[in-house]
Design brief:
Layout lengths: L12 H11 L5 H9 L5 H8 L13 E9 L2 E8 L5 H13 L5 E4 L3 E9 L4 H18 L1 H9 L3 E9 L7 E9 L6 H20 L2 H6 L4 E7 L7 E9 L10 H17 L1 H21 L4 H12 L9 E6 L2 E9 L13 H9 L5 H24 L3 H16 L4 H11 L6 H12 L1
Antiparallel strand pairs: 1-2, 3-8, 4-6, 4-7, 5-6, 8-10, 9-10
The chain binds (R)-mevalonate (MEV).
Amino acid sequence: MPNPISGFSKKNKAEKIAWLASQYLEQDPDAIEVLKNYWHQDEILQQLHDDFIENTLTNYYLPLGIAPNFLINENLYALPMVTEESSVVAAASNAAKFWLDRGGFKAEVISTVKNGQVHFNYFGNVTEMTTFFNKIKPALIASIEDIQQNMKKRGGGLLDITLQDHTKELDGYFQLHCTFETGDAMGANFINSCLETFATTLEKEAAVYPVFTKANKYPEVVMSILSNYVPECTVRASVSCKVKDLAQKDITGEEFATKFVRAIEIAKTAPRRAVTHNKGAMNGVDALVVATGNDFRAVEAGVHAYAARTGKYTSLTDAKIEGDTFHFWIEIPLAIGTVGGLTRLHPVVKVAFKILQQPDAKELMKIMAVSGLAQNFAAVRSLTTTGIQKGHMKMHLMNILNQLEATAKEKEQTVAHFTEHAVSHSAVVTFVNKLRN
Ligand code: MEV
């Protein structure tokens, strides 16, 4: 069994690797070579990556692909997408082209309000707490003046603080519920700094508040943190066209639209389907969130909570046929930034922003929502027509060939063969073995 270690983070990279080799990779010295092979030759660039997190040993590559032909509000974008899933970029490109010929995508930001809470206990009289809060509210706001100076200059800052009484759900539980506008920043650091200052001010003011002193009952802060649930920071993307213009190989526009809308109704009805349906949409959103150095865990958490906002988990997208027109749309919360975090640090992220023509946060929200809608369209289109595996396995073919360490010639012959035949793992193995014999 490996030994525990203290002071690991103080070791240099070579020492960390040596420790890892002795404790976990003894049977496999080649593994260390793999780690080293992924170092960047440029030491300054490598140092930049080393500094992103603690205990960096190497870099972990994911491909960045491009999905061109996204017409969004009359602007033509090529989307940089980072993902490990073989079919995602192909599906996005496909959907982009499909809608390019049918008027493109429309997108609008609905609102951009973010929020955070100071969670605290108070076991005294609720009316007294309310009176206290109203009295100290100006002091709370004044206490973050320094912190929000720059944010205010950029048109953002604190919007409001309210006291929320949650004692019916949990004995003695209150919140300072705070709302913010953070402009082009995701704003996590700004919001958390404000909240922690509110917490300190709350306790300081409470310590000298006569009513609390007399009753010997004081508010006690439990924690202060932004919320990744941002239902007031939402964006909507949509497409529409004449039903007849949806006609494709082997299917009329009407048949396609009817089946497509039915698939959406199923996702709206059945949570088990909705989760997978939404996962498909998030394939498109996340690929852009990662490419632009944004926090994909925050986005994922917020989006899925939003999908369950009525108390039942449901589809993020919706569709209808109205007269002779097909409509398809998505509405999602997205707290993302175009400044701060990795956005201006990671060299590839910087290029991604250049490809996207340096969008501000609102524009990026629109592009991400469109990407989600396109991805969902591509998935549901495949599911309701050819089935998903045909396209998916075709894209996965190269991964299977790489696993089999196929030569360039073998790859060429296999790809040619499988343009005419259904791809499955075993079929590819059989075919490559036959070639080799
Ligand atoms: C796979 O990554 C995504 C899909 O499962 C989405 C869906 O089922 O709608 C194809």
